[in-house]
Design brief:
This protein is α+β, with helices and mostly antiparallel strands. The protein folds into two domains: 3-39, no CATH class; 43-98. Helices cover 27% and strands 22% of the residues. The chain contains two helices and five strands. It has helices spanning 3-15, 22-39, and strands at 43-44, 55-60, 66-72, 77-80, 93-98. The chain has a five-stranded antiparallel β-sheet with strand order 1-5-2-3-4, with no helix packed on it. Strand 2 and strand 3 (66-72) form a beta hairpin.
Length: 113
Amino acid sequence: MTTLEQKHRAAELQYKDHNWGPAVKKAAFVEGAEWAEAQQRWIPITERVPEESDLVLGCMKDTQNIYICYYKKSRNLFQVWGAGRDPYEDMKVTHWMPLPEPPAQEGGQNDHR
C-alpha cells in the first residue's frame, strides 16, 4: 500500500461517521491537491536526502543536467545509475525528486517496480 493509499484509508476511517458539507469537502480537496503538488517538487539536499540506494532524479550543480541517480549514505554523495560513468564519482546533486510511478500495464498492474 502506498503512502497516499495509507493516508486515504486513515482519513476514511477517521471521518466515516461525519456528514461534511460542500465547503469542508472543497477544503479537503484543496489540501489534497496541495499535498500532491508538494510530492512532485524538487527537494533541496539541504532539506533532506533520499533513502539510501533509492533511484531518484538528481539535478546537478552548475549544469542543471538531470540524471537518474542514487544516494550513497556511507560516502555522503549521489552516484549516477548506469550511463557508463565512474560509479564513485560525486554527482554534485543540489536537488532531487522521486521517480514517477511507471504507467500501468495492460490489465491495470504495475508489477515491474
